[in-house]
Specification:
The chain is of the alpha+beta class. It has 7 helices and 15 strands. The longest helix is centred in the N-terminal third of the chain and has 20 residues, at about 10-25. Pfam families: CBM_14.
Length: about 325
């Protein structure tokens, strides 16, 4: 763009541009950048003095607090966190096997690893193993790989063995019992746990999740998810699986399982399970009379010989 130096308008424009440039330059003056209130505290650098390394006030440790007060996760180690009080930082560790839950800066909480995402800060303190407990606290799989339905719950290095419900295995990723195909534990696949392989079927039948009788137990059957993955299910007490109808049924309708409950339930008990008696309902007239009787307890008794109050004048 070309300017006419002799024009008053040009002189004014140049002065205006100079003022704007000065204001912008002043606004870009370097200053301290505020830290995010939710940012995890980073690991403090090594300190020369004993007071600083112990988390006391002073030195550079004060700068590690994202906020003057609160609890903040370490940026590298999942079971390490920091307590900040009036800007002074103190390094802390969760009990062995637990990790820090940073859901709120106002709460100091250590939690099970299953509930916390430690993928971005995967370091942990050195474990302190005990009998059946790889760490002092938490849920842990059985030492033998082929033992699928048993696991340990450890508190302060003391263990308690837990057994999963029938047909489920311990899931090391979630800390609970799940179907074998969900747990994906080596040596504990659905076929290995149930000793049952789903027969090959066409795609349309596989999408219906076909059912098959348990060859060892009349009360149970297998559901083949997508025709491939078996899951063991059972009928309610007194019933057996009818492989002809693919549903639970009464033993009298399944010849090969007619005596399955013999010695376990009597014929009378089976009959009562199949034809339960209706619950006794109180007679409506008796119930009404009882309610009247209860309400009359608190009414003053009035003899038929007594005159109404209005006639006593």
């Amino acid at each position: 763009m070309w300017f006419n130096n002799n024009s008053p308008t040009t002189t004014t424009a140049v002065l205006l541009l100079f003022v704007i440039g000065a204001v912008v330059a002043q606004s870009r003056t370097p200053g301290k950048r505020p830290s995010s209130s939710r940012e995890a505290a980073k690991r403090p650098p090594p300190q020369s003095s004993s007071a600083e390394s112990s988390g006391g006030a002073g030195g550079d440790l004060t700068d590690e607090c994202p906020e003057p007060n609160g609890y903040f996760a370490d940026g590298y180690q999942c079971d390490k966190y920091y307590e900040c009080r009036d800007g002074a930082i103190t390094e802390k560790l969760c009990p062995d096997g637990m990790v820090f839950n940073d859901y709120s800066i106002n709460h100091e909480k250590c939690d099970l690893p299953f509930n916390i995402d430690c993928s971005q800060r995967s370091e942990l303190q050195k474990p302190k193993p005990a009998l059946h407990c790889p760490r002092q606290n938490g849920y842990f799989a059985h030492e033998e790989a082929n033992v699928c339905d048993k696991f340990y719950y450890c508190v302060d290095g003391k263990f308690n063995q837990i057994v999963c419900p029938d047909g489920l295995v311990y899931n090391e990723k979630t800390g609970i019992c799940t179907w074998p195909d969900e747990a994906k534990k080596k040596g504990c696949s659905s076929q290995e746990v149930f000793k049952f392989t789903c027969p090959a079927v066409g795609m349309s039948e596989a999408q219906q999740h076909p059912r098959y009788a348990d060859p060892e137990d009349c009360q149970y059957f297998y559901v083949c998810i997508n025709g491939e993955t078996p899951r063991r299910n059972g009928c309610k007490r007194g019933q057996v699986f009818n492989d002809a109808t693919k549903n639970c049924d009464w033993p009298r309708n399944v010849p090969e399982c007619g005596d399955w409950y013999k010695g376990i339930l009597t014929d009378a008990e089976l009959e009562e399970l199949e034809h339960p008696k209706p619950k006794q309902r109180p007679d409506s007239q008796a119930a009404t009379a009882n309610r009247r009787k209860q309400s009359n307890k608190y009414r003053p008794h009035q003899s038929s010989r007594e005159a109404p109050v209005d006639d006593l004048e």
